[in-house]
Design a protein that fits this description.
two-stranded parallel ribbon; 40% helix; Rossmann fold; 232 residues
Length: 232
């Protein structure tokens, strides 16, 4: 099985390249015709296109976040439609599509009205322009020791400053990188083409939970202060 990968240089993309040894990389700046050429002999596409979300969201960077996902995925869908349309497109999305005030599962149809909600909605809509088999995978925060969100958290925790933000009540849906890789394999091998596939662990975490667990499995120092307490 040969897989094409967009967003191949990121944390998840790097691990996907290692898992699927027969692969081709589709760079973000390729034209539709160039993407079409890269798709020759490909069985599936894993679309992870997008600039890193874990950065400061200035107005200009929000535009980068948006265009890197929507424009790239739109060109990818157009190129796929020029093929025989037997290629399986597995396109990433995010749990940020859901409103923060409610618990959601596969049956949830409500979406958030904020920037993340619009970003995820438009990202999915571009993928659905492909007239072949499509799977949308809404991902929680992907955790792994080599990068992603955890690599941003660990230096703060190592300084003993990894306390909860505010009242610590914020809930985060997450998935381990190994579980995500297995999910990609499962979806592609079985040809699952449901419009929406949820990808996060059934147990979500709050910051106090993470604060207690990280010192037990890594070289970090516990912290009892919240950022609200530190800032006065």
């Amino acid at each position: 099985m040969k897989v094409a990968i967009t967003g191949a240089s990121g944390f998840v993309g790097t691990r996907v390249r290692s898992r699927f040894t027969s692969h081709v990389v589709i760079d973000r700046d390729l034209s539709v015709s160039e993407i079409e050429q890269r798709l020759r002999g490909v069985d599936a596409v894993i679309n992870l296109a997008g600039a890193p979300i874990i950065k400061r969201w200035s107005r200009s960077y929000k535009d980068v976040l948006y265009q890197s996902r929507i424009s790239t995925t739109g060109r990818l869908a157009e190129a796929l439609n020029r093929t025989d349309r037997n290629i399986h497109l597995v396109s990433a999305s995010a749990t940020g599509i859901y409103p923060e005030h409610m618990a959601c599962d596969e049956t949830c149809t409500e979406t958030a009205n904020d920037f993340l909600g619009k970003l995820a909605r438009d990202w999915e809509q571009q993928a659905m322009l492909y007239r072949g088999p499509v799977s949308i995978m809404r991902l929680g925060v992907v955790l792994g020791p080599e990068g992603g969100a955890l690599s941003k958290m660990l230096p703060v925790f190592r300084l003993g400053l990894g306390g909860p933000v505010g009242n610590g009540g914020m809930i985060t849906s997450w998935i381990d990188i190994e579980d995500l890789l297995r999910a990609f394999e499962f979806v592609i091998r079985l040809g699952l083409t449901q419009v929406c596939l949820m990808q996060w662990r059934p147990t979500r975490f709050q910051m106090p939970n993470l604060q207690r667990r990280l010192p037990k499995c890594s070289d970090v120092r516990p912290c009892s202060l919240s950022l609200r307490q530190c800032s006065g």
